Amino acid sequence: MEKKEKWLRTDDIAIELGVTTERVLSWIISGILPVVDFDGSGDYRIREKDLRQFIKKQQSKTVMALQQVKAQIEEEAIVFENLYEWMQEENKMLSRQYQNMDDCLLQVLEQYKESWEGSLSAGDKGKAQAYQEAMVEVYDRWEKPKQEYQQWVMSHEKRWQIFIAQLGPMLETNAGLMAPADPYLALNMSQIKAASTMDSYVESKRHQKDLYQALYLWMKRENNTLLEHYKKMERTISRVIDTLQRKAKKASKTMDFERGQTYQEAASLLYRQWEEIRNDYNRHHLLGHQRWNHCQEKVKMALSNNRSFSSQNDSSNEEGRMVSTFDDDDQEPESI
């Protein structure tokens, strides 16, 4: 005996699927859920077979949507991971440039001191006084930006701990703190194991992406501050040179040519030392576009490898992937 076809109301579907009646009506109005209105009153009826087909289609779309979300989050994690690594390299280079600038001033002070001592030994008090004034000028102008930089470096650990505290739950699933040799590598990223469900896997990848994004932004902020300190040091050296040159001109106007020449020699010495450091920085700056292109190529290669791996993995798991938990159409479903 042929089984009687079962018809459902919108309220029945809403209760069965755990959604509101308005949600069911929106599916009907959009045309994705087939219905029949027998008397034109809006009292819709839905065949149970059509409902099962609708659920299958929606579940297939959900699987595809989750795959797209998973792929997007994985690629964003790759992008931010590479951006963070690139920013780390930029930080190391900029720190080295600042240290070179610092060493430059130390060497100039040492040379000024040797010239001062040599002038004193030769009994040339005017020349000795000029080198002494040059040393004082360098030290006085260098002291403040030097102290500001040292304070910033010493507060790194505090800034890092504040940053870690702000990360919150991301660290609980994806990373653990350790005592690093490099202070900018203070996170030990754990390997994300295969998750038992798509939701937990996507969530793990989302945490990884958010973590690398936060690390990248933190490092970018640190680099901007470091660049500001470097620029301060450049302005300091420029002002010292201007001051020494003004003193040279002033001494020449008073016919104190030997002293004026000493000021000029001191300014020239500092300028030559600074020019070498500045040229190195300019080369570093000009190569920035090349380094950025290299970073982009690295990201593209990582994305390509990830997509290739994902495609192979999807193909191998296609038969085992569960698309629907419902029975076939020719089987009697449970009563709603």
UniProtKB/TrEMBL annotation:
Highest rank taxon of the organism: Bacteria
Acidic residues bias locations: 326-336
Region (Disordered), start-end ranges: 307-336
Name this protein carries in UniProt: Helix-turn-helix domain-containing protein
